[in-house]
Design a protein that fits this description.
Order of helices and strands: EEEHEHEHEHHEHEHH
Strand content: 15-25%
Strand order of the largest sheet: 1-2-4-3-5-6-7-8
Helix content: 25-40%
Structural class: alpha/beta
Number of helices: 8
């Protein structure tokens, strides 16, 4: 693993593939880390059209800093700072669940930074009714900061309305993948995300919430053609 300073904290990240290949950023779900993407990342990096795959641990997760503050806007700024620190001016983004919400905020704010966007089982940032009750911390050590869980639950219950209002600013081609009826995410919310983004299409893979983990071949069969519909330009890092 490598580390980089971004937005005032240290982010740990994993990489696969040639350094001169077109970049692809993977953002994990809550409670996971960049290692969650290993099987998918290895295939994307070694495909006939290889990618430079990067999978950071979001703040409060894994080996990145646990600063105690977990506004989703801060996570967005972390990711933007991460890309800036690595000299990446434009990238494809594949993001799961919480990582998908962060990716949406990034695409809203800096649409020129994201070439193509894949959202895996990402809920619409709308208030929950009824609200999610406070979670009880499990015993023992955790691979993530429990304060992150509390903070993201609060934001899930009462998200900033601007997040939803600005979904129309996501102007790049977007693939929304739903996990089907076995997912913990209501699929009408996933469909609402696809309807709200101007250039989005919706695909359902009946795998539950962990689509890329449960059915990686089907996940890649949807994602890889989408990412290659438009030409890629190789980039040599500065």
């Amino acid at each position: 693993m490598d580390t980089v300073k971004a937005n005032g904290i240290t982010l740990a990240y994993r990489t696969w593939g040639p350094g001169t290949a077109p970049p692809l950023l993977l953002l994990h779900a809550r409670g996971a880390d960049g290692a969650d993407w290993v099987p998918v990342a290895e295939q994307l990096a070694a495909s006939p059209s290889p990618r430079r795959v990067l999978a950071p641990d979001l703040r409060g997760h894994g080996r990145s800093d646990w600063p105690g503050t977990y506004a989703l806007e801060d996570m967005r700024d972390d990711v933007q700072g991460f890309l800036t620190a690595l000299g990446i001016a434009r990238t494809d983004v594949v993001a799961h669940s919480l990582g998908g919400v962060v990716a949406c905020l990034l695409a809203q704010r800096t649409p020129g930074l994201v070439r193509r966007l894949v959202l895996e089982d990402v809920p619409a940032p709308l208030p929950l009714d009824p609200p999610r009750p406070p979670a009880e911390r499990p015993d023992g050590d955790l691979p993530f900061d429990w304060e992150m869980v509390r903070a993201t639950d609060e934001q899930r219950n009462a998200p900033d309305p601007v997040w939803w209002d600005h979904m129309g600013r996501i102007t790049m081609p977007t693939l929304v993948i739903g996990g089907g009826p076995d997912s913990s995410i209501p699929q009408e919310q996933v469909a609402a995300v696809a309807e709200r983004i101007p250039d989005a299409r919706l695909v359902t893979i009946d795998a539950g919430h962990l689509v890329h983990e449960t059915r990686p071949d089907d996940f890649l069969a949807a994602v890889e053609p989408f990412l290659h519909e438009a030409g890629l330009t190789s980039r040599t890092p500065s």
